[in-house]
Please model this.
Amino acid sequence: MSDHPTSQRGKVPRKVIPIAPVPIEEHEQPLFEARKKIQPRSISGVFARWRWAMVWITQLFFYGIPWLQINDRQALLFDLEQRRFYIFGWLLYPQDFIYLTTLLIISALALFLFTAVAGRLWCGFSCPQSVYTEIFMWIERKTEGDRSARLRLDNSGWTREKLLKRTSKHLLWLLIALWTGFTFVGYFVPIRTLAVEVMALQGAWQIFWVLFYALATYGNAGFLREQVCTHMCPYARFQSAMFDKDTLLVTYDAARGESRGPRAKDIDYKAQGLGDCIDCKLCVQVCPVGIDIRDGLQYQCINCGLCIDACNSVMDKMHYPRGLIRLSTENALARGWRGMQVVRRMLRPRVLIYGAVLLGLTVAMVVSLYVRVPLKVDVVRDRGTLSRIVAGGQIENIYRVQLGNATEQPQRLQLSASGLDGLRVASDTEVTVDAAADRWIVVRLQAPYGVASAGSHPVQLEVHSPVDASIAVQAKTTFLVPR
Model:
């Protein structure tokens, strides 16, 4: 064999040159995008005024109604402990759950109707999250200044001035949040009683729920803000299922606005290939959820219309026609519709069906409440004594009867029985029930011996008012005849 350093197959071995390892850079990829704090700019205009009008209307109702009294009783109270619901003179019991169910269905249909017609109007103008965010941002503007001042404050270090502004802002936020939590609990506990208990530090559960809802208001309206609308609220996710090409939405007219860009006021911008949008980004600065409406329809948009006010103010300064950003529909933009053409398309089958069902349910609920008998009668057989023969050859059955007075006046009621020949009420036939109260009574029914065969026989216990014919209830029960 040869001593030459070759392989047995005649191949010359290659020289191996070592290669230095290349360092690999490691990048951390966050699972979630970091939240960018939004500092909306204040703007005046039609939609801004409507938003504040709805703030006043909703909050005057919310904060004021619990203190309103009807017949020396809280006008609107959902008394869960006593299982009674006082609604502006009406008294509802748990048995009246059908009315609450109908009310929820009506609310859902109304939301569907408004969404099909004009998008997220509820979100932009009446939703508690939007309303309290608007109130908290107003406090923020009053304590920390306008948008530019707040941005400078965010980027500055902690100074005495910054500490004073931030402290006063949060104290005012906490005051509003505590009053909101107290008022909310006041819809379920009589608010005057609640005020006394809170001042005396009594009622641990009541105080807990006041603090709970206060914390929820403080956190949602003060810190989370648009995050609730975009990530926590399910309505933002399924709203598109209720939209169509004839739904009124806040839209940007790209055909008119593009190409966007800055320009002097007195130049012929169209000769330079520019549209009406001067790219001032004011529509972005006023948006409470921080989107650019010029990017098209986005699920974050709450249809508040503040970008319309901002854009119209710029169009006025530039002496351009208003409506570059406006409430319009996809079909209207594509076909150049305006005014009544858009309105006529709103009356489409989906809207008419929603409206007809909503009107029918509302009328049915109002009529049902109007003809509702404000008297509840529940008959329970006395299990201790099912049936017995008493003096005079009478067969007697004993019952426990619950009478519920659903009016705000005491009621004098009379009792009678029917269903068997000679059947009569052997106990007191007249009873008084206090206003908005329940009363248990013992009722003895007697029938002559031999009036019916042995066994169970259906009978009726009639309860009525001698002065008001509309207050009358007939309760069914059974009468046992012994063998």
